[in-house]
């Protein structure tokens, strides 16, 4: 009986120990799962930002009101320059360019009311921090027939003669189209920087047709401004207009005759070389003329072939 009691007590103790160990294991796993979930949520929050977007289309020259805006969660890679995250930051400001429905609110498209009444605060006031205003000369084609406006975003490409080396070792040049910068803010077109004067807000103001300006001012970093100035002296500058809700940077390959032909006429895999059929043994061996020996038997002559 004593032995059975000992076995029973030992089994109960071992069972309790097993229960405690299982509970500890489950708690540790639950804690690990909670920590992993917290890390995933924290990482997601770090890669996203809550910004203000337009609830409806907001025309140029309108004072920002709270009912015009709503909050949206945007990934960091899709943020526009100078995004607005707080309504208090832009309360009472006036748009200097149209803002489409769903577009992120950017400080580059807003100005203070006193700047509106005085005809604007100048180019320096709308130049983003860390950027430099640089003006380039464009033709009617590069400016999209004059349809580029202050507050738009463009991609800058260059048409340049690129030095290359021919197979015989000589130096020559080849025209190439090189992507320079993407998602660049247009600060001004000619002398128009998006400011709104009293005359433009008048009730009976007539819409005047303006000729396309040959000068466009862009907001670039100091290094980008230097590169653009160099490229402008070497070739031509072209601009491509972006959608106001598209701020994605995409890899673009430079264009040349080689890349053009590769795109238009992709290379076709060459057909395998057909090997000639194996020749027979008799064809491979050279034909040796047969030799004979003439033997006369009486008046008869016979030819007997010689064997090798």
How is the secondary structure organized here?
Layout lengths: L1 H45 L1 E7 L14 E7 L11 H4 L3 E2 L14 E2 L1 H5 L5 H4 L5 E6 L15 E13 L5 E19 L25 E6 L1 H13 L1 E6 L15 H8 L16 H4 L7 E6 L2 E6 L3
Antiparallel strand pairs: 1-2, 3-4, 5-8, 6-7, 6-9, 7-8, 10-11
Write up this protein.
- With 308 residues, the chain is of the alpha+beta class.
- It has helices at residues 2-46, 87-90, 113-117, 123-126, 222-234, 257-264, 281-284; strands at residues 48-54, 69-75, 94-95, 110-111, 132-137, 153-165, 171-189, 215-220, 236-241, 292-297, 300-305.
- It has a domain at 48-197 and 211-264.
- It contains seven helices and eleven strands.
- The longest helix is centred in the N-terminal third of the chain and has 45 residues, at 2-46.
């Amino acid at each position: 009986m004593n032995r059975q009691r000992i076995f029973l007590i030992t089994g109960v103790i071992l069972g309790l120990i097993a229960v405690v160990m299982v509970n500890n294991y489950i708690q540790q796993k639950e804690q690990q799962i909670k920590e992993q979930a917290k890390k995933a949520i924290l990482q997601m929050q770090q890669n996203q930002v809550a910004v203000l977007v337009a609830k409806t289309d907001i025309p140029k020259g309108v004072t920002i009101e709270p009912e015009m805006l709503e909050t949206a969660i945007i990934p960091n890679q899709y943020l526009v320059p100078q995004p607005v995250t707080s309504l208090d930051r832009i309360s009472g400001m006036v748009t200097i360019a149209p803002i489409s429905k769903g577009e992120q609110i950017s400080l580059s498209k807003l100005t203070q009311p006193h700047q509106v009444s005085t005809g604007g605060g100048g180019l320096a006031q709308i130049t983003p921090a860390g950027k430099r205003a640089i003006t380039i000369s464009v033709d009617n084609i590069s400016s999209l027939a004059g349809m580029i406006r202050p507050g738009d975003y463009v991609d800058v490409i260059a048409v340049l003669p690129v030095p290359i080396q021919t197979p015989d070792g000589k130096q020559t040049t080849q025209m190439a189209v090189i992507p320079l910068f993407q998602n660049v803010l247009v600060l001004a077109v000619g002398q128009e920087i998006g400011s709104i004067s009293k005359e433009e807000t008048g009730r009976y103001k007539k819409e005047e047709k303006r000729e396309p300006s040959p000068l466009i001012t862009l907001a670039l970093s100091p290094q980008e401004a230097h590169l653009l100035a160099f490229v402008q002296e070497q070739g031509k500058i072209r601009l491509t207009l972006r959608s106001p809700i598209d701020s994605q940077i995409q890899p673009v390959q430079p264009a040349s005759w080689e890349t053009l032909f590769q795109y238009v006429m992709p290379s076709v895999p060459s057909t395998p070389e057909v090997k000639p059929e194996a020749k027979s043994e008799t064809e491979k061996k050279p034909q040796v003329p047969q030799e004979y020996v003439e033997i006369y038997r009486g008046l008869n002559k016979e030819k007997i072939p010689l064997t090798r």
